[in-house]
Structures
1.
Amino acid sequence: MIFRQLFDSESSTYTYLLASRRGGEALIIDPVLEKVDRYLQLLDELDLKLIKAVDTHIHADHITGLGALRDRTRCITVMGEQSGVDVVSMRVSEGDKIDVEGVALDVMYTPGHTDDSYSFLLDDRVFTGDTLLIRGTGRTDFQHGSASAQYDSIFNKLLRLPDDTLVFPAHDYKGDTVSTIGEERACNPRLQVSSEAEYVEIMDNLNLPNPKMMDVAVPANLKIGLLQDELKRMGLSLTCQEGISKASDPSIILVDLRDDSERGKNGVIPGSVHAPYPDLDENINPGGLLYELAKTSGRQIVFYCAFGERSAMAVETALKAGISDACHLAGGMDAWKAANGPVA
Ligand SMILES: [Fe+2]
């Protein structure tokens, strides 16, 4: 496995790059905007294709690299379903998996630091975001934080992992890089409590100043969505109402770009074809499934995904590949369901 722990010294943030092999698909956890060039260089050096960029929560101390990485690599942006960001490509919840070729993260909902905080488990290691730090825990006094929720996340979820599970946090301010669940249970001063009330008492009396970047970072991190307006202006997007009335029209073909896990959880539009977004380049070029479908059937391709991000990028890719008759469903499956579109 390729595993890199990268550091941003301005915000003391750790970013993790994961892939199963050189030349394969990669995912990145908690990228920092200022470091995006470095990540792209490393991806290039290791011959990796970035498929997913994931944030453990909405950060208050740095601007996320999710939007920039999406714009520059066309990767899928992923956050938890509670995150109040304008749009990400994919949202996950407890029990889901985030996968790329050869790597599958188990999604654990671990609120407390914020109400959208997640941890991700990969075999022998867990990425704990700001929920569990090395010899510390993430503050719980803003962004809908809750010390009692964090107690529950730590004691009833994270500390139940095997003792030798490696702990990789989103930050460290002292220079530590990794710990284990057993080590934190024994040595983390915040965890030496006998009750939830005692933990809450500690957390409620930390009296920390706000992070210096907070007023800049939080608003910026809430607005990372891809602008879909341009496609609308170009007449390349369908509203859900238009989609619903055209769904059984034989002149169009609906193409679902989502992962299997999303299709299983949220259902599919009846009659649509599945062509996962990570395989788009392969499918859209001559000889590929979508290319042949568009050219031989003469039907218009209507891409859809969860929120309209992947489908908007797919329209641009299709146009570049010479498929001129493609558009997308604005707002994706989320908007489709809200408009009472049929779901199978
Ligand atoms: Fe944080």
Note: The radius of gyration is 21 Å.
2.
Amino acid sequence: MNPLASAIAEGEAPGHSPGGPIRVGSEAHKRLFCRTLLDTHNPYKPAVLDWPPLESEARQRLVNLPIWDIAVQTEGRARLNVASYAAMVSDPLLKKAIELDAFEEGRHKHVLSNLVAAYGITLAPEPEYVLRGDVEWAFMVTGYSECIDSFFAFGLFESAKRSGFFPEALVATFEPVMQEEARHILFFVNWAAWHRRTMPLWRRPYFELKVLAVWLFLVWERIGIARDVGHGVQDNNFTVTGAKSVGEDIDVAELIHLCLRENERRMSLYDRRLRRPRLVPALARFARRFMRS
Ligand SMILES: [Fe+2]
Ligand SMILES: [Fe+2]
């Protein structure tokens, strides 16, 4: 593994920034966010990941998590959305980075499929993955939804680790997937910032409307779907279902605090000159103000 990738895998690459300042939207910015994704790729093979044997109680807890169908399908859709966008991109470096992103989404699906098989979890039949319509829209839906889901997944994962909900060996096996999602959202927000600066000015208003529409769609998807919780339907709302499953009496303020801390820790490993995902952490900080800790 590349030294930077292994330092990051070990959690030991404290936000180095070896070069001078860079301007968002510049060639140097594009090179930096693409190279960061490419150079920190962890080449693990899903087939050789070791799924530790679990005691029956721990296994049952894992089997009962109501997230497996939607998790596998989300990764399947993410792979398609990202790969389809990569096919449209002409810049060779950007294309290569987005292709790697798509490869990693496919690998997540592989990892999850192996986990599910290893612990005897039964999945609902998968739908056919098809992309109709605007490819950039689909790429942005995947990117921004990862910004929401990963932020909460970081905190939930840490909480499950601390409470012993997941045994240590399982946490270690799954850790690379978590860090990969941190890389993806870092890449995505930098792509979005670069993309809006490099497009012709007349396209900007349309793009901003599209960004807004994607966020509204994601909020609608999460609120709409949250209503189905408890109706036996697995849904996109990882936070609600995940928090309910990981600990009955999880304190929301405490969870938000963990999400913020973990988000910061995971992001701190990368070059400081890159943009960080800001909206979801800012909303979480805002919400925390109204909660008793
Ligand atoms: Fe993924
Ligand atoms: Fe991802």
Note: The first helix runs from residue 3 to 9.
